[in-house]
Amino acid sequence: MQSTKQCLAASILDTIGDTPLVALDRLSRGLNGRVLAKIEFFNPGFSIKDRIALQIIEDAERGGLLKPGGRVVELTSGNTGTGLALVCAVKGYRFIAVMSEGNSRERARMMRALGAEVVLVPQVGGSRPGQVSGEDLAEVDRVTSQLAKKLKAFRADQFNNLSNARAHELTTGQEIWEQTGGKVDAFVSTLGTGGTFAGVTAALKKRNPRIKCYAVEPAGAAYLAKGKVTDPNHKIQGTGYAMPLPLVKREWVDGLVTVTDREAIRTARLLAKKEGIFAGFSSGANVAVALRLARRAKHGAVIVTTINDSGLKYLSTDLFPER
Ligand SMILES: Cc1ncc(COP(=O)(O)O)c(C=O)c1O
To answer: Which of 8, 12, 167, 176 is an S-S bond match for 55, by CB 3.0 to 4.6 Å?
Structure first.
């Protein structure tokens, strides 16, 4: 991705990617390792998912799967949908986002503002508002398939589409390598589709197989680590669906780590207070685990993670209370 800072961008799509890498030196003070974070809310849809939206749509165009004036359908926890909505707005495609009612309300409003149609799917019995489970997602998936068939639309299919991981291999991972000058010891990422983990891991391990890559799961939904789910209702939106992830190669997972809602929330609040970084639940989860690794790392180790989206996307939740 070319830097757009010095030149005129032909559209907002040219500003996707090329995000800053920031040292979290206030939070990692006194620890052995140093934690660096890629600030993905600098993307125009305020999340890491703009990268995959652009790659998926442009790969579909190149592959002849999407023609001018075509329709796009996708299930989303909100961030991929926002990315697809803005890509489709610029390129003139009709976009229909299918989302669980359990995701935060500001996401649906943002997608509608960007011209998308939003289909909200009620949560299944037993699910708690704000806590989207694997069962909720399965229901959203069923509705998405039906709709794509009915509308003869292109389905982005982020859980299976290789363009998802490719976006992160070609951009996020490549940028991390360049921004650190190759001095990375570990990478940490939560898993939603696993696209971020898969793509960044591919980029880094191909350049230096000794880099350790850690995948993060919610404590109650440690599906890959333990194969069992004790509580699918966690708060780390966009991650932890407790289902197989076709994009993730198990041999590239050096460690599976769990994180509690409490730890993710506490760290997201500390990120805001100590680093001036206003981010969401999954960013808190990523940084919580990165700090844990930094504590027991060898002196001077560099641990990289991502700040996936903005705290503004969670103002209707209890992440940042009103008072
Ligand atoms: C807030 C947030 N964090 C993390 C993720 C997980 O990213 P990935 O799907 O690349 O695993 C998502 C995915 O939608 C997300 O919305």
So the answer is: 167
Q: What's the 299 CA to ligand 1 centre distance in angstroms?
A: 30
The pLDDT tens digits of the residues spanning 213-252 come to 999 999 989 999 888 788 878 899 889 888 899 999 999 9
> Would you state the CATH architecture of domain 12-48+165-314?
3-Layer(aba) Sandwich (3.40)
Whether 49 sits among the annotated catalytic residues: the reply is yes
- Look at residue 296 in the predicted model and tell me its pLDDT: 96
pTM above 0.90, yes or no: yes
Long-range contacts, 316-322 (Cβ 8 Å, 24+):
316/104, 316/105, 316/106, 317/104, 317/130, 317/235, 318/265, 319/235, 319/265, 319/268, 319/269, 319/280, 319/281, 320/269, 320/272
Quick check: 265 and 130 in contact, CB under 8 A? Answer: no
CA distance linking residue 112 with residue 191, whole number of Å: 26
Residue identifier of the C-alpha nearest atom 13 of ligand 1: 238
